[in-house]
Amino acid sequence: MAKKLDFDDYRVQNLRYPVTTVTSSYTASLEDYVIISTGSSITLPQASSHRGKMYIVKSTNQDIALGVLLPIPNASLLTVGDNTCKHIISDGSTWVDITPG
Asked: Is residue 82 situated within a structural domain?
């Protein structure tokens, strides 16, 4: 009989996330995950086509305006403040801010 695995038995080693660094306006691709930007705007793909897709956007120089192909219901989601970051995920219809804290 196979051993039942406990949570402590499961180890993830060498887990890596793609990091994209940009210095100007940028259109996010589906391969992006963490986007570190000194630019002023980032355009996200349609949320309706990418349920579960998440981006972490970090600003290092100035406020970043997030643009999307579909409206975002919460206006505060449209800006990533200078030297802050936001976690954005698609719920299948729109982009949602799930930033911890």
From this structure: yes
Nearest residue to 29 via CA among 46, 48, 4, 6: 46
| pTM for the model | 0.78
Strand ordering across the sheet containing 79-80 = 26-27, 41-44, 64-68, 79-80
Both tokens assigned to 57 = 């956007």
The verdict on residue 14 lying in a domain is no
pLDDT tens track for 34-84: 999 998 889 898 888 899 999 999 999 888 888 875 555 555 567 888 899
* Structural domain of 60: 19-97
Answer yes or no: is 30 within a domain. Answer: yes
The residue among 24, 29, 66 whose CA lies nearest residue 45 is 29
98, β-bridge pairs? none
